[in-house]
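Thanks for the sequence, V.! I ran WAT1-related protein right away. Repeating your input here for the record:
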Amino acid sequence: MAAALRIEKVRLDRRDGVAKVVGTLACVAGASVITLYKGPTIFGPEASLGLEVGAGGEKNWTLGCVYLIGHCLSWSGWLVLQAPVLKKYPARLSVTSYTCFFGVIQFLIIAAFMERDADAWKFHSGSEIFTILYAGFIASGVAFAVQIWCIDRGGPVFVAVYQPVQTLVVAIMASLTLGEKFYLGGIIGAVLIIAGLYLVLWGKSEERARLARDRDAAAVMPPDAAVIRSSKLQAPPSSTTQPLLLPSSTENV
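Predicted structure:
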């Protein structure tokens, strides 16, 4: 999306452009391996909370996949659109406040139609209150503010390339806190994510270094060169169009 909207430039004829493309594909491949491939168990805690994915009965996995694809497209569009918004409205904290405010309004409208049971809105434990407060202050407020700041400084691709790291962190934390098993696919995916992240960051660094060298070269250009260039542009017509000899006086007789 960033390349299509001319926000991010990708030059496949240079090393930095190839590194960004290959690194992005490696990060996506690593996240896909962690999600889809398990392999042998590397770490399996003895204590488990007994949470199983299929414990909730029959689920519509096709509809869930469609929702997840829509989430990815919406999230990608949100990241990309932040760059032009911040150029015209550079108040990052205000953008975060507006994002959270309109998000709350949207969720309230959807929840009013989807969940009409009054018991579902009651708190049954302190952990539920902590989860809601953490999601509101940290996962939404602080995370959005930091993310918008990073988009303003590094661009949407720089922020999006860190998203596969979230899959790796979730797999590790689920193994340590919820007692889920950590498989070989997690190790392979982690290697791909780290390698892809390094390639993208290296490509961005090379691109910025090249732009800095071009600006320095343009700044140190001697003023005589600019004068010579402008004089060439404003050169008088050639002698082939204007004769060197003036017309003789006999022609006027």
